[in-house]
Amino acid sequence: MERYSRQLLVLGLELQQKLSELKVLIAGCGALGSTIAELLARLGVGEITVIDADIVDITNLHRTHLFTEDDVGKPKAEVCANKLSKINSTIKINYIIDIIDEKNIESIIINKDYIFDGLDNLYYKLLLNDAAIKMNIPLIYGGINGEYGSAKLIVPNKTSCLSCFVDYSNTGEETYNACDVIGVTPLIVELTASIQVSLMLKHLRGVIDNSLYYIDSREIEIEKINIQKSISCKSCSLREFPFLNQKILKPKCGIFRLPTEDFNIEKPKVSKTSGRTILCYPKIGCFEKRGS
Ligand SMILES: [Zn+2]
């Protein structure tokens, strides 16, 4: 407890104990995910699982808290887990090199107390939202774009959800536009991740916050917008879970699992040919990165 002596003065023993008993999943360990992961490890969350199929790229370093130049080319999830275990060796850390999709998401989030959204693709954020509502697990959404960010606590059966206020269009052309590379600064990453983790602490203290937090790091303003539950929401109201049940066309960009199983490699292999990037991991398999 010496490690947390300064934190105990603020949070108290009861909340610290609750943190030590939590099992948390962080979907995506890029900019948002790795910042959230570091905050949770330092706070003393008992078990942290990170999932990501991507590798560290030189273009990640300006905004990604945990990564250094030595990590380029290594799996993000593994790098995150190794760094977290150096920050706090008293907690349990798991990593999964994989994407989340409709096939595996329910088995990955089962028995978790909180899910953090560190994803960069709206389709998969909404898939995560569907799964969290279905499995009755609190989800803490976060999104960043340029110098702006947003965050929201989603508690199934109690608050509005991501599908209540996000309109996802799945026509081919528009989906591709949504795959464009977006600019981002490290400042908005830190602010958004901090609000996501603060929303978990607020919830642990017994407060259910239904607000969408809109963060403007350019003007340094945070706006709280009350989001009402939509009676026509296909996730939390109608419980049709269209993303989980594959009623929505998948985007053309992102990371996709390939049917090939390239097990004859000793370390991660990246190959780029005619605009395609193929990532292969020993004993795991291969993924294709498309778009951004
Ligand atoms: Zn909803």
TrEMBL record:
Gene Ontology MF, one: nucleotidyltransferase activity
InterPro entries registered for this protein in UniProt: ThiF/MoeB/HesA, ThiF_NAD_FAD-bd, Ubiquitin-activating_enz
Annotated GO CC locations: cytoplasm
CDD domains: ThiF_MoeB_HesA_family (cd00757)
SUPFAM superfamilies: Activating enzymes of the ubiquitin-like proteins
Domain THIF-type NAD/FAD binding fold: 4-233
One Pfam short name: ThiF
The name this protein goes by in its record: Thiamine biosynthesis protein ThiF
Organism name: Saccharolobus caldissimus
Taxon lineage: Archaea, Thermoproteota, Thermoprotei, Sulfolobales, Sulfolobaceae
